[in-house]
Each structure stands twice: as structure tokens, then as C-alpha cells.
Amino acid sequence: MNFGNPERRICFISAESMIYTFPEESVTAMSQQTPTSQNPHNNEPSRPREDRQSGVMLKARPETRQPSLYKVLLLNDDFTPMEFVVHVLERFFHKTADEATEIMLHVHRRGVGLCGIYTFEVAETKVSQVMDFSRANEQPLQCTMEKE
Ligand code: TYC
Question: What global pTM score does this model have?
Fold first, then answer.
């Protein structure tokens, strides 16, 4: 058995739980490359690169993305009482009385207004909560979401 001076190798565990080892010098060389891959605001998928010595395809950075965001909107109608809309904005969107009144009046005058911006599941939940609450109180108030 050979216990003498083995080549030093660096071990990586990928997101897919694959274990890769590389000669130490090649890892040092890789860490000095591709400054754009270190920009956390770069939302493009990383391109696989081939390590020159091992031939293994490497990802320059983990496959993470910023989630898409969705606007939750209230629509005007002629029947829902203003106080009801203010209450909805306080209850489901955590607005103060002043903020809720301002948004309600904006919707009343302009036809549509922004309640908040959320990830998909949160936006979907807010829309359902408002629609269920309005229906349960026999109000025609409409709430929708749209991608930012
Ligand atoms: N236009 C309604 C009224 O005059 C008030 C209202 C405001 C309704 C905002 C819906 O999203 C709305 N009673």
C-alpha cells in the first residue's frame, strides 16, 4: 500500500449530493475566475464549465433564483361600502387606517389600486382571503393579482 505523499485534493458536494474531488491547484485556479458569477444579483442560470484537469462539468455558482413577484390589486365597484374596503386593507394587508383610506380612495377614483407585492403563493392566498371574505359578507368587491 502507498501511504507516501498523496496528491492533495479538494472535495466538493454538489446540490445533487454528488461528491467531486479535484487537485488543489485546479481549485485555486477556478476560484480566481468569472467575477460575474459572484454577483448575487445576476439572476441568469450558471453555465456549466469543464474543469481542465478532471474533465468534470462544474457549475460556477449554485442554481438559485429570485422568486417572481406579484401585485395584488383591488378593483372598484359601485356597491361595496368604503368602510368595508378600508377594513379589508387593514385586516388582510396590515395597512394603518390612514394607509387603507388612501388606497381605498385611490381605487374609488382610479378604478384599481395596489394592496401589496408578494411571492406567488402569498399573493394567491391574499386574493382568496379577500374574495372569500367579500362573498361571505355579500359584497361584490374584486381582488386580482398580476405578475410584476
Ligand atoms: N366605489 C365604492 C363606493 O362608492 C367604494 C369602493 C372603493 C369599492 C374601492 C371598491 O375596491 C373598492 N361605495
Answer: 0.65
